[in-house]
Write a structure and sequence with these properties.
Length: 171
């Protein structure tokens, strides 16, 4: 099966594979990932590979979209992830993003997320997309608003006590 890769002026956005295990290991252990997304207990490159196999690839195979690795064209560096997620306990498909700290604040997250949002509506034919973020993650909230998502209320994920902010956009 061939899955879609997307491009923007500065970025290549392609499905995450096992070859991204080292990058995923680094990203999942950044302070912001642990603070805002949560500790996924990925403590080795081998466990990052297993995380990709168990958490990312099954959805890609089932729906044709999942987690994407964002690569900067200028130097071919893996700088972040962006994706469309079918999350347990959430209605509909959720857009999410995370970048290495040294690539934040340069518009890469907006550029990648805006392209994935367009793909959600135009290529994957979704009627709407949602997003969740923590109350204290203001930069994520701002990015969601810049993408056109509107705050609709709060929610909780299964087995998690934290109240999350819920955003949504219709096609």
């Amino acid at each position: 099966m061939h899955y879609k890769t997307f491009e923007t002026a500065r970025l290549i956005i392609r499905p995450t594979t096992e070859n991204d295990a080292e990058f995923v290991f680094v990203l999942l252990n950044t302070p912001k990932w642990i603070k805002y997304i949560g500790d996924r207990n990925v403590k080795t490159i081998a466990s990052a590979k297993a995380y990709i196999q168990e958490k990312m690839l099954p959805q890609l195979e089932r729906l044709g979209y999942s987690n994407y690795t964002v690569i900067r064209k200028a130097d071919n560096r893996k700088i972040g992830t962006c994706g469309l997620y079918d999350r347990e306990g959430l209605d509909g498909i959720d857009i999410g993003f995370a970048f290495l700290p040294e690539y934040e604040g340069r518009g890469f997250a907006f550029e990648a997320s805006n392209r994935i949002k367009a793909a959600a509506f135009d290529e994957f034919k979704m009627a709407s997309i949602s997003a969740i973020t923590t109350k204290d993650n203001v930069s994520s909230q701002r990015l969601l608003e810049k993408l056109g998502l509107k705050f609709t209320g709060t929610t909780r994920l299964p087995n998690d006590d934290e109240e999350l902010l819920l955003y949504r956009i219709e096609k």
